[in-house]
Amino acid sequence: MSCGRCIWAAVLTAVISGPATVLAADAVIVVQRSPLAGFRHTNAAGFWRDMKVGDRLDLVREPENPYDAGAIRVEWRGRKLGYVPRRENPAVARQLDRGAPLEARIISLRENRNRSVHIEFEVVARLSSR
């Protein structure tokens, strides 16, 4: 089943189950999943082993970034990790610019054979409880 179908199946199941399920505090919609870009250009290698799958990440817009007006910096505990990949940032940048309360979290951490680090994260939107 494709990711889009998974999301709609979950939403449909929640609607059929009743409003209590739809309004659950932990209900989220996955906006996108991405590999972290630019990690090797940061000082994050010194603390990446402290990071855990599930850790919260902060998304910080950088509209004045000289390389990408849609740039979104990704931070862990106030430390710069890298960026949302340029080809994947337009929709998230628009939502952040509109004030949407998007969240991000680590979903995968691994060190490759060449000692480079691969971090994958997802951006989520919490469903309103109103």
Task: Name a few traits of the molecule.
globular, 3 helices, 130 residues
Structure description:
There is one protein chain. This protein has 130 residues and is an alpha+beta fold. It is 21% helix and 34% strand. It is built from three helices and six strands. Strands 1-6-5-2-3-4 form a six-stranded antiparallel β-sheet, with helices on one face. The radius of gyration is 16 Å and the shape is globular. The two termini are 30 Å apart. Residues 1-24 have low confidence and may be disordered.
What does the secondary structure layout of this molecule look like, with pairings?
Blueprint: H1 3-17, H2 19-22, E1 28-35, E2 56-61, E3 72-76, E4 79-83, H3 90-97, E5 102-111, E6 117-126
Antiparallel strand pairs: 1-6, 2-3, 2-5, 3-4, 5-6
In brief:
The protein is an alpha+beta fold and 130 residues long. 21% of the residues lie in helices and 34% in strands.
What kind of sheet is the major sheet? 6 strands, antiparallel
The helix fraction, in percent, is: 10-25%
Biggest sheet: strand arrangement:
1-6-5-2-3-4
The rounded Rg comes to 16 Å
Shape: globular
